[in-house]
What does this fold into?
Amino acid sequence: MRKNIVAGNWKMNKTLDEGIALAGEIQKLLKNNPPEDSGVIIAPPFIHIAKIAGLLDGNIGIAAQNCASEPAGAYTGEVSAAMIRSAGAGYVIIGHSERRHYYGEDNPILKKKIEMVLENNLIPIYCCGEILEERNNKDHFNVVKNQLNDALFFLSPEEFTGVIVAYEPVWAIGTGVTATPEQAQEMHAYIRGLIADRYGSEIAGNTSILYGGSCKPDNAAELFANPDVDGGLIGGASLNAEDFTAIIRAF
Ligand code: PGA
It folds into this structure.
């Protein structure tokens, strides 16, 4: 069901103690003044998940930042979707541009990861987005379309219901350069149109599409005000409880 969502992607930051403290601070700030109409998710590193899940009161969802493309077995260093589920997470970020670009995760691998996530009753937060060169070449719509077609749109309508999509232009991630509200709205409307073409307008209208890329307390409101922007996937600003909760209150 479509709702406003703010998800914090901690990436490879925070020791366990620091992560526990941050999660506790976020929970406290939200409890004192609960957000009216937005869901909150945090995505700490794998090894923090079980501990943090035990501390949170259920109003904050937990996501893993990645998962293995195989169910189990001799895959040294990998973490399966079943393990993530058993540790207390409900979501998995799939296809973040850092996974695509630093770890060579292409659409066929991401498709397998999406399968693993769904098989384990987890909700994928599927990331798509173009690099600057692709935008400059006016290829950004095609790139995003292929990322959705190749790794996500194989799902049945039933499976697709509940999937969260995040549009993250790579040139805006961690750079301090944000997409303008117009650029964000344009791409979000395009993505919703693609979902409508594949699954029909009812499912498209019920899908949450998040924006990611240098979203901060001072620009979140103008981004979230767009009709097709249902919240944000926040990197840097999610590492500070005050900033993160300010973004949650930007709706
Ligand atoms: P950023 O990261 O907010 O630090 O730009 C966004 C993301 O990678 O999800």
The first strand starts at residue 4 and ends at 9. The chain is about 45% helix and 15% strand. Residues 181-199 form the longest helix (19 residues).
